[in-house]
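Hi there. Long-time user, first ticket. I'm pasting a complex I've been working with (about 643 residues overall). I'd like to know whether the download I got is complete or cut off, because the file seemed smaller than I expected. Thanks.
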Amino acid sequence: MWEQIRSNRRRSVFLIAALVVLPLLVGWCLGWMVAPEGDKVGLGLAALLLIVMLPIGWFGGKSLVLSSAGARPITHDDAPRLFNVVQEMTLAAGLPKPPRVYLLDCDAPNAFAMGAPDDGVVAVTTGLLMRLSRDELQGVIAHEVAHIVNEDAEYMTLAATLVGITVTLSELVRTRAEFSSGRRRAPRLEHRRDAALVALAALVVVLAPFMARMLYLACSRRREYLADACAARYTRYPAGLASALEKIAAQAGEMQGVGQDVAALCTVNPLRDEGASFFSTHPATAERVRILRAMAGGAGLADYERAFRSVAGGGVIGPRSLREATETPIRAASAEPDPPEIERARETVDILHRADGALFVDCPCGVRIKKPTGAAGMTIECPRCGRANRLPLARPPEDGHAPAFVFQPGRWQSFQCSCGGVVQLSPSFAGTQVPCPRCGAITEVLREESA
Amino acid sequence: MMSGGVVVLIALAVILGLAGILVILFITLYNGLVGLRNQARNAWAQIDVQLKRRHDLIPNLVETAKGYVKHERETLESVTQARNIATHAKGAADASKAEMALTSALGQFFAVAERYPDLKANQNFLALQEELSSTENRIGFARQFYNDQVTEYNTRIQTVPSNLVAGMFGFQTMELFQIGSEAERAVPKVQF
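Hi, the file is complete. Here it is re-exported in full:
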């Protein structure tokens, strides 16, 4: 695997270098077009833009993307199944630290990964969590973890920033040129040589964004195949990712709040219709599925390479990795039945509510009420019977005991601490005590049966 | 005489240069081997962590199930017993035998649990079941990663040129973590 990562790294360095040169070139040409002496000014401005934007892309990219996409951090208690699958794939990939897990409120099933191997982030949409079985989810998470292990996530975020700079500069030039063409003093074209140079400069400015995009895309598509190959190897079960991809493609919809930069990190391109378009960050999903389905003999890198050759021709995996690849038999489908889709949907919505700080109250008439916070008071009116339900209070302390709350496992429950803070208990809460998030006081949690 | 001195100097420089390249190659190979060995050891530690996690989950499971499966005392006891043996197992061979026994005891228990709808409706039990089956998976994946690392390391030790370095510094081949038959390895043990 190391060869793969190293070759990825080499490619990345080349890509980044090319993407740094392009905006400089554009700036230089631009300056020169405005005035023959302006080339240095243009170059300087482009360099300044790079110096300002690069650190933002490198350091702030992750949190910026997460917050702009409205991602909510998830803990083990919120979504045990998702969390466990992430842990499993962390071990399968030998990642030094499990990535943080985020949930996006979006019906289109998709997922993306960001960050370095020791500080990764995996984000999935609610649509994904609702629709996929455990094996399928495992395939998708394995693909995302592979992006982190192969260091795709890191470089592609940076590369996307650079493409953005080139595009911005070039657009700027074009609009400026149109705007000022009437009154601008054109460079004096006394010689034919100058005219030709101006044309060349204009060509560079116009073509640079395309070149930047194509460089970027060529890299990102190769990485998708590689991540698929790794996912098959980690899970030993290519059919899981294949059927997940089918489901995702069938439900394809636009993900909101996701730009081109994040698109390259998603499992399936969230922006445009699929198809092996020249300008697509992802290979056609149908082809990826065909390759994964063609892996009959095993789940190793060599098996993926064979399947890739037979379906698409060419190859994606380096010769040394292939030589070192060990025999990896495909495992059987997981025997565990998955909860029905409607139940998964309810679970997923509850996780989202919890992440948004909703209150969970059971009305005696049988209605489960989920109430967003921020609404006045802790009294919640039942929409069916009209009864006013108070948020349950923790039982006051009895001789030496901490305050207590009787918990019925299996659903989200909220109660109020004596300080007025709201405590949320997840369906799988297994502890015996819980601290109030506001005042920190401990409440004892009693099980229904033992109470 | 002068020209002879120059030739000697050049020869010396070439020899020194070659020696330098050899030293660098040697260091690279050595460091590569050490890196791989450490990765394999880390992977082994991960298996241990997951085995421990399984041991920690079992008392909870037994406690939860006790009230429901009154007629299956011996199944529960065999799980507890297998767990106790596994926690005290010394050495890799011993441990892997004990862990396999524990896996099969757990399998039996979950098969029995199938007959108790009340137990299967218990949320605590369901949560524990998810944790245990994930732990089984994790043990499987950690072992898979360990075996991949060890295979890579062993191949490196046995092939030219790193076998020379390995021989000089006594790098030993590591053992793969084998378990039962392939079929047993393939399917997660927790049945429903």
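A couple of notes from our side: Residues 1-333 of chain A form one domain. The radius of gyration of chain A is 27 Å.
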